[in-house]
Specification:
By secondary structure, the protein is an alpha+beta fold. It has seven helices and 15 strands.
């Protein structure tokens, strides 16, 4: 870890913590963006007066001591490897891919060779943005390993910068379909709950009323299945926090079917269900969550890009079993 310490002077009093740190790093490490600062805060890498701080919107005061620990990136030789994924749209500046379930987006501990980035390096070696570093070539935003669907990949740094800004300003519309337990009441609404990394399990995120990052999910029930045992729900993101949809749905007691990390329902099965459906549910070991629609204005051509794809076969099979069971 590289550690940096700053003392708040009179000119910075009243600034948000993330803005203050962005300004401080501008002259010494300009690659540390505000978004990266916010990620450091969510990972408990920022101390405010020697105490961990979980909110990036804290207003700082004169004399405050702010410390930041920045992980030292490991030098790894990225391996180009043929990885299966579908390119749904592509031009000179960007592409939109359909990421399959089970595919990790970028290399990390325990998986350095079998990720989407390894596959992108194989198929588009010199046509990927480098602004996010070697381990995240082209990656503008990510999907969890076991979430499938549409992702935007930037092919140059200028496009990447524009797309990142559009995401931050909520100008990229992303829609997901999820199969959840039960029927949400009301059937259409907004979940507005801050999210922080869990202190008890570093792999999980959790809801926090007093700290964390703002997270907003709009949802609408599209279909009720098997007499209310499950529902097909569309979720639209206003923000893009880690595990956002999964955490939000669990927080209202309607976990996504198959979610191994956020599942308070523990592989429930409906009453009077067929053996086929029971076995399918018991063996469905990934969250039934799919990024099926994306819409944005192309940052270079200024044309609207609107793409929509079908559910993958595993979620579609589960949907059909739940739907047919009620007939």
């Amino acid at each position: 870890m590289n550690k940096y310490k700053f003392i708040v002077d009179e000119s910075s009093v009243g600034l948000r913590l993330d803005k203050f740190l962005t300004q401080q790093f501008l002259s010494i490490k300009p690659e540390i963006t505000r978004n990266k600062i916010q990620n450091f805060i969510s990972q408990n890498l920022v101390l405010h007066n020697q105490k961990i701080i979980n909110t990036d919107s804290l207003k700082i005061k004169f004399g405050d001591e702010i410390s930041v620990e920045i992980p030292v990136p490991r030098s790894l030789d990225l391996v180009a490897k043929k990885i299966d994924f579908e390119v749904v749209y592509e031009d000179n500046d960007l592409m939109v891919i359909n990421k399959p379930s089970g595919l990790t987006v970028h290399p990390g501990a325990g998986n350095q060779d079998d990720t989407l980035v390894n596959g992108l390096l194989f198929s588009h070696r010199d046509k990927l943005s480098k602004i996010s570093g070697e381990m995240r070539l082209g990656i503008v935003h990510r999907l969890d390993k076991d979430t499938s669907g549409l992702m935007i990949v930037a092919k140059n740094d200028l496009t990447h910068q524009f797309l990142s800004k559009m995401l931050k300003e909520r100008n990229i519309k992303r829609s997901y379909l999820a199969l959840v337990y039960g029927v949400i009441d009301p059937k259409k609404g907004v979940i507005n709950k801050n999210i922080v990394r869990s202190r008890n399990n570093r792999l999980k995120m959790s809801i926090c009323k007093t700290a964390g990052r703002v997270a907003i999910t709009n949802y609408e029930t599209k279909e009720i299945l098997h007499e209310g045992f499950a529902s097909l729900v569309e979720c639209n993101l206003e923000t893009g926090r880690t595990h956002q949809i999964r955490v939000h749905l669990e927080s209202i007691k309607h976990s996504i079917i198959g979610d191994q990390l956020y599942n308070s329902c523990q592989k429930m099965t409906p009453k009077n269900c067929s053996l086929e459906l029971k076995n399918f549910l018991q063996n469905f070991n990934r969250q039934a969550l799919h990024s099926y629609k994306i819409k944005f204005i192309h940052p270079i051509s200024n044309l609207e890009i609107a793409l929509e794809i079908d559910l993958p076969s595993d979620i579609k099979d589960l949907y059909n079993l739940l739907k047919n069971a009620q007939n």
